[in-house]
Amino acid sequence: EIVLTQSPRTLSLSPGERATLSCRATQSVSSSYLAWYQHKPGQPPRLLIYGASTRAAGIPDRFSGSGSGTDFTLTISSLEPEDFAVYYCQQFGGSPTWTFGQGTKVEIK
Amino acid sequence: QVQLQESGPGLVKPSETLSLTCTVSGGSITSYYWSWVRQPPGKRLEYIGYVYYSGTTDYNSSLKSRVTMSVDTSKNQFSLKLNSVTAADTAVYYCARISRYDVSKVFDPWGQGTLVTVSS
Fold this sequence. Notes:
The complex is a heterodimer. Chain A contains no helices and 10 strands. Chain A is mainly β. In chain A, the strands form 2 sheets. In chain A, strands 2, 4, 5, 6, 8, 9 and 10 form a 7-stranded mixed beta sheet that branches. By secondary structure, chain B is mainly beta. In chain B, strands 2, 4, 5, 6, 9, 10 and 11 form a 7-stranded mixed beta sheet that branches. In chain B, strand 7 and strand 8 form a beta hairpin. The relative contact order of chain B is 0.32. The model of chain B has no long low-confidence stretch (mean pLDDT 95). At the A-B interface, strand 5, strand 8 and strand 9 of A face strand 5, strand 9 and strand 10 of B.
């Protein structure tokens, strides 16, 4: 099983600051199969990024993804109030077919 | 746009069967794969499995012996059954469509989620 480890677990930042979230895999993951989701309380997860770096429809360009192999990064260039949430990385193709990281909470400092 | 809504009992007794239904609106259930994902309190999201509109299924090996998924195209619904539940099955259960973007296969969109508690 490919295990995804996200760091940090919590990121305390102010609006306007830059957020850098890390996702590390125990085995190499194809960039095509790495995605990021945003999850707010009481709402379903929302797809942000697929293919490691492609924004999903309607996602603002302050969100960007990068990385390859076992190390991937989600960057929010300038935090807006609505960006404070939990972010999950997810990979496809291992066994089980899809696995998720444990999440990084971006909270208001 | 496509919307998904889970329904089913919020409380299930230990050793019994958890049954949930996901109703798809705003689009047809055909030609897509439909999945269930859960999140136990304080834990990460966990893929449970998927069902194709034709009835083909794939289950997480950790749950395979207890899971059954099916689809009802006439009602635009798909369902999850998880038998012999224990407290470890307490979670928010989400249904989601598996969407293919380029070669990526991701969960998009998701239902709102429903909390299922296993307790006597």
